[in-house]
Write a structure and sequence with these properties.
The chain crosses the membrane at residues 23-40, 55-73, 85-105. This protein is an all-alpha fold. The chain is 74% helix and 0% strand. The protein has one domain. It has helices at residues 20-42, 44-51, 55-64, 67-85, 89-109. 1% of the residues are buried. Mean pLDDT is 75; it is low at 1-6.
């Protein structure tokens, strides 16, 4: 075995700040973000018959393009939010925002 591929006993252990709560928040954000996409793609065959084969491209554009300004805004506000709420404090707000977005877009789709 190569010594570079095996971690030694003195290697620092990676720790997640916030421990289990951070992992749970990350999981909730991931679920909230993907619920709408799963709902849409589960009916892709039906939409393909109604709107033609280009529907997957159109769905990708409709799903991912609106998130670009939000990601840019989030990146620009990250330091201010971390300074005000702490590095983990704003994750709860993201969960609430993602849940609200899923509810709003779920009403539009459903």
């Amino acid at each position: 075995m190569s010594a570079g591929l095996v971690a030694g006993h003195n290697a620092p252990r990676l720790r997640i700040k916030g421990h289990a709560a951070s992992v749970l928040r990350f999981f909730c954000i991931s679920v909230a973000f993907t619920i709408l996409w799963i709902m849409l793609t589960s009916q892709l065959g039906h939409y393909s018959k109604l709107f033609g084969p280009q529907i997957l491209l159109q769905l990708n554009l409709a799903f991912y393009l609106p998130s670009i300004p939000i990601l840019i805004l989030s990146g620009s506000l990250e330091r201010a939010l971390d300074a005000r709420l702490g590095p983990i404090g704003h994750i709860g707000g993201l969960v609430i925002a993602a849940t609200m977005a899923a509810a709003i877009f779920g009403d539009v789709v459903g």
